[in-house]
Amino acid sequence: MGDHKSMKMYKAALMAAGSGLLLAACEPANSGDVIVNQSASASDARDGQRASPDAESRALNAAIQSGSEELLWLEEVEGEAALAFAAAQNERSLGHLQADPRYQQLHDRALEVLESTDRIPFVGVRGGELWNFWQDANNTHGLWRRTTLESYETDAPEWDVVLDLDALADAEGRNWVWRGSSCLSPDYNRCILTLSDGGSDAAVRREWDMETRSFVEGGFEIDATKGSTAWIDEDTLLIATALDPAETTTSGYPFVVKRWTRGTPIEEAQVVFTGAASDVGVWPARYQQADGTFYLLATQAETFFESVYWLLPDNAQGEPIRLTLPRRVSPQALFGDQLVFSIEEDWTPVEGGETYPQGAVLSLSMSELAATGELPAIETVFVPGERQSVGGFAATANHLLAVIDENVVGGLWVFTRDENGWQRRQIETPENTSVSITTADDQSDLAFVSAQGYLTPNTLYRVSADATSLSPAKSMPSWFDTTGLEVEQREAVSADGTRIPYFIIHNPERSGAEPGPTLLYAYGGFQVSLNPSYSGTMGRLWLENGGTYVLANIRGGGEFGPAWHQAGLTTNRQRIYDDLIAVAEALVEDGVTTTGQLGVMGGSNGGLLTGVMYTQRPDLFGAVISQVPLLDMMRFHTMLAGASWQAEYGFPDENPEERDFLRSISPLHNVNPDREYPPLFLLTSTKDDRVHPAHARKLAYLTDALGLDMLYYENMEGGHSAAANLRETANRLALEYTFLMQNLMDGEE
């Protein structure tokens, strides 16, 4: 279906693309040298008994709580003083954690998993060939490569390396990080490659010639920006870039789509659609049917969850046509002539007509819609039950595959359509595993799915041509000893009576006999579901060392459909935090762990979650890890992509009630200098142009000034994942688990 997946996943792209405006930063009161000295003195205080915060530190905390922007200078991403603070903190944190003899062991065991050649080489299908991007110990930047289906199904596929990213990085002196490719069907000879320097979301786009295996001299090339492209034909692109501030939204994404013809300057590209600066962003995409018929669309995201879709002309004369779909809608697939989409709100297309319920999957004729601009007849594909949700769709030539989650565990279904409408049946999958669709080819009936569980390594299965069964194709080795380990799904009761499911992976003989070190993980936002998955690194670094792992499916996610997510939006967000508190309290009450042995970890929105746990319930945890977090909820909307998340968190400049609520939960604004807090580990990345590193920097600076037990690590590369390559990932994991062991295990009797 061409490159339409960029449209299907545009909500993820909001978190993964775009450049924000840096605000003018004032100079700090102290020089970099003073900051270094301050860090040293706070560290010395932590080595003994914590000293009472001095008057200057209390004044700083009071100023922050009153709304003063004392720490605005930390928003200057590469400001001299900000980087000096980060460097001093890095030196202290790395010195403390890497000096622990466990660090190197954990690092090496993690790296063995991450760089193993026994990993499954997951593929995409393009022109009958299987494509893969691969990183290992010898290819840290990675290889873009392809093979045939016949070769792939052998134990040792023969890979044709199309691009060696390590060689390119060396030749050009850039820390290239692969961000994907978009190739023009049906020949797939011309591609747009997206490459990020150092892992930031802003990336360059360069045209690649498959026949010469080189970048096209004088071809399409776009400087580093947040945006997207879609092919019209071999000489024409649709582009949306944030290169021009006048065409960039307040969230840092483009809102203008242009038609760019080969051989002309990008500045002369013809405007085909214009949104508004107040939008989150606008993205073009190409939807293509198996017979080659394609449609060009633009997604105008007015908020993170509400979008207007436009049918764009494939020539220079036509006008965009607005599609009369609900604003809370997610396109899923183009199956034959049917556009399949899910809705996140109740929808009555025709006044007095049928109302389709929130969460339903529907379809309509794309050709009729394009021909008339009017809404065709709507057909129901699937309506989830109370404990079900849609995990994703993908189309082959004759079947529409779907993952339908039932009580957080996914099953595989196949849909077909005939004169009687949509029919469905379930395909048998391995028990106690979570299923995901890896790739599907709409030019044939080739499809692969993967299945995995907390204790079950990922296995890749090929779907039979008639979509009735699965056959194993590749499997991941078992990376850790599962002897005695079991997986249970339990429920905790939140403050409002809602039952919150969570998975616990433990040795019941141990956890039933005495409490033990336990790591609690959650996310709780943006309708992101957390399903059972196999982690060789978590198993090796935590479970094998006697730890218990818990994953909580709190509200804010999509585990039970749109309503589960929407229950925690804006001023209702305390429900999400109450959910996690309820799970943590249940773990203590059930004797699984103690408050001193319970750690909590989360990243991005999950970093906000753990930051709130730190300030609201410091008595409940023995250690807190906050990765690439949001922590300053008074200014989140002013930094980088933050404005795009206001539909999730609230509009502090427009709604006083929402501003007051954000102030009440903002971790930066709720530190009490006279309260005891558990050890805190903050991690971020200088190159993260999605969640600004200033969030973590500010809380690090404040807690350091107050003499609290805090470690801070800022990776100077890596983007939002805080790691630009596998070795950096191994380092981050080893740091985190060393911190957890020091604080949750070393005090065990």
Layout of strands and helices, then pairs:
Elements: H1 5-8, H2 10-16, H3 32-47, H4 55-65, H5 80-98, H6 101-114, E1 124-126, E2 129-136, E3 139-147, H7 149-152, E4 160-164, H8 165-172, E5 176-183, E6 190-197, E7 203-209, E8 214-215, E9 221-225, E10 228-233, E11 236-240, E12 256-261, E13 270-274, E14 281-288, E15 294-301, E16 307-312, E17 321-323, E18 329-335, E19 338-343, E20 361-365, H9 366-372, E21 379-382, E22 388-395, E23 400-406, E24 409-418, E25 421-427, E26 434-440, E27 447-452, E28 459-463, E29 470-475, E30 486-493, E31 499-506, H10 508-511, E32 518-521, H11 536-543, E33 548-552, H12 562-566, H13 574-589, E34 598-603, H14 605-616, E35 623-627, H15 646-649, H16 656-665, E36 680-685, H17 694-705, E37 710-715, H18 726-745
Parallel strand pairs: 32-33, 32-34, 34-35, 35-36, 36-37
Antiparallel strand pairs: 1-2, 2-3, 3-4, 5-6, 6-7, 7-8, 7-9, 10-11, 11-12, 12-13, 14-15, 15-16, 16-17, 18-19, 19-20, 20-21, 22-23, 23-24, 24-25, 26-27, 27-28, 28-29, 30-31, 31-33
Helix pairs in contact: 3-5, 6-11, 6-18
Domain Peptidase S9 prolyl oligopeptidase catalytic: 541-744
InterPro entries: AB_hydrolase_fold, Pept_S9A_N, Peptidase_S9_cat, Peptidase_S9A, Prolyl_oligopep/macrocyclase
Organism: Glycocaulis alkaliphilus
